[in-house]
């Protein structure tokens, strides 16, 4: 093909100077996946539909040690590509995108990553078994069907609630015998039916079936 040097990749119809990135004005938070949209364009500024462009797109993000999950993939929109990445910490990140070694016009550019913010999106009224009361909540985990596990540190137990906040099981009590809890701290779901409990004063991790309460 005329104009190509030995070793060049033919990207006829794609002009790096016309290619654009979308979603540059989004707010990015540390620990949250971010997504840019790369639009390969022709010299006339139209979206290019050439096949096999993915392997010709190069994304460099610095500092490299503070970013993970950098992935380029095709979108459902014709000809466009997603550029996904997850910054680990707040700060300034320098991003450069190339196609066939040619930089996009606004590259490299800087994106500011903020501290992750947690917003209260709703409240849930937890309903305990009769006679029970919460003492010192420490850990919380939610499975894929909306059930909630909560560890009560000073109550020496873990409660399981349904997605409406009704208590469906209480696991453990003070003591050091097998299957009992003594100051449970963290809790996480291993799958929808099993949890892992960091049982602090018993110095162990317990795996418990939430349906039976057995470890």
Walk me through this protein's architecture:
The protein has strands at 20-22, 28-29, 34-39, 57-62, 67-74, 81-87, 91-99, 102-103, 109-114, 137-142, 148-152, 157-161, 167-171, 184-191, 194-199, 204-209. 20% of the residues are buried. Mean pLDDT is 87; it is low at 6-11 and 174-178. Strands 2, 4, 7, 8 and 9 form a 5-stranded mixed β-sheet that branches. A 4-stranded antiparallel β-sheet has the order 1-3-6-5, with no helix packed on it. It has 2 domains: 20-114, Sandwich (Immunoglobulin-like); 137-209, Thrombin, subunit H. It contains no helices and 16 strands. The protein is mostly beta strands and 215 residues long. A hairpin with a 4-residue loop joins strand 11 (148-152) and strand 12.
Characterize the biggest β-sheet. Answer: 5 strands, mixed
Structural class: mainly beta
**CATH hierarchy class name of the largest domain:** Mainly Beta
> Total helix count?
0
Beta-strand content: 35-45%
CATH superfamily of the largest domain: Immunoglobulins
């Amino acid at each position: 093909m005329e104009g190509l040097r030995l070793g060049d990749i033919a990207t006829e119809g794609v002009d790096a100077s016309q290619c654009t990135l979308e979603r540059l004005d989004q707010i990015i938070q540390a620990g949250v996946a971010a997504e840019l949209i790369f639009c390969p364009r022709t010299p006339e500024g139209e979206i290019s539909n050439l096949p096999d462009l993915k392997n010709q797109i190069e994304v460099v993000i610095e500092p490299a040690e503070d970013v993970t999950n950098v992935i380029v993939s095709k979108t459902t929109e014709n000809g466009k590509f997603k550029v996904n990445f997850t910054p680990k910490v707040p700060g300034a990140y320098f991003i450069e995108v190339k196609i066939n070694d040619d930089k996009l016009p606004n590259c490299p550019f800087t994106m500011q990553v903020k501290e992750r913010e947690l917003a209260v999106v709703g409240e849930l009224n937890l309903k305990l078994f009769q006679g029970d009361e919460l003492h010192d909540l420490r850990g919380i985990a939610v499975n894929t069907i909306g059930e909630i596990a909560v560890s009560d540190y000073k109550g020496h137990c873990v409660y399981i609630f349904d997605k409406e906040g009704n208590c469906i099981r209480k696991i453990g009590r003070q003591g050091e015998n097998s299957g009992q809890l003594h100051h449970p701290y963290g809790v996480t779901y291993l799958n929808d039916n099993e949890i892992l409990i960091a049982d602090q004063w018993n110095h162990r991790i317990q795996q418990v079936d939430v349906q039976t309460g057995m470890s």
